[in-house]
Amino acid sequence: MASDYVVTANLVGLTAWQGEFAVACLSLSLLCCFELAVLTITLWNKKSKIYFWSIAVATFCSLCYTIGGFLYFFAPPSVASKWLCALVSCIGYWIYTPAEFTVMYTRLHLLRPSRRVLLVCKIVLISEWLLFTTPNAILSFAALVSPDLKFANAYSYTQRIEPAVYVSVSVMLSCVYIYHAFVMFKKYGDKKIQGLLIRLVYTNLFLVALGVGNIVSEYVGGGVVQSSYIAFFYSFQLKIELWMLNEIGLLASETLERLENSRPKKRERILLTLYLYHAI
Fold it and tell me: Which UniProt keywords are given for this protein, alphabetically ordered (predicted)?
């Protein structure tokens, strides 16, 4: 029935629940972006480090992606052309991924894994961006602005592949992160430190679940639902990243207190982690 559909000014036919879901996700993403902007500005005294700039760039790109989604799905053509909406959204998506990967890599670097582990993680992150995110962003832009169905057909494949690869990379980094967090802190821990470690595990599992939800949204609701969900996922993920950074600082501080009377060698690694935490 006609009443079961929401037809936007761009003549994108959506079922009622898809339209409501898109509005909810994009609105939540917009709220998260403003919260992140405030937190990013207020949390760092020195705004010249890589972690600050990666968070700031990722937040800005998430905001661009969200605004592009709002304009494309709900703005009349007289207000925003498809070219403008697609350009803003796709550039935000394309730049967000390396910025977010930089955040994740920097967080892992605090735990001081071996150089080989860091090198492998770096290669995987760069490869994902170059081989999957970049082609997907290009095909996304072409599918939105070009009448040629070849781009839309190609994008329908890459849009299923890229989120799966992204989730796989996130799972890998989460496993490496959890492992090195336990290696560094578990042997020093009491119940409080163990509780912090358990929260880190659950938080990383939650991030993985959000990534899996990105894949599910494509098959359940199609491109509109997935695009709006991605906007929420990107911004909310950054908030969790900030929380986990704070947890690492708490872990290092708590562990250092327990080692106050220990030998210098036992304190050295924790001191370095705490130093790196304050340095970023």
Answer: Membrane, Transmembrane, Transmembrane helix
Sequence spans of domains, the chain = 19-279
Per-position DSSP letters for 75-121, written without gaps between them: S-TTT--HHHHHHHHHHHHHHHHHHHHHHHHHHHHTT---HHHHHHH
Q: Are 168 and 124 in contact (CB under 8 A)?
A: no
The span from the CA of 214 to the CA of 81, in Å, is 27
Q: Which residue has the higher pLDDT, 133 or 218?
A: 133
Q: What is the pLDDT of residues 174-232, one digit of tens each?
A: 889 888 888 777 666 567 767 777 888 888 888 888 888 888 887 877 778 888 999 99
Contacts of 139 (CB under 8 A, 6+ apart): 151, 154, 155, 158
- 19-279 architecture in CATH? Up-down Bundle (1.20)
Instruction: Name the amino acid, one letter, at 47.
Output: K
Separation CA 122–CA 107 (nearest Å):
13
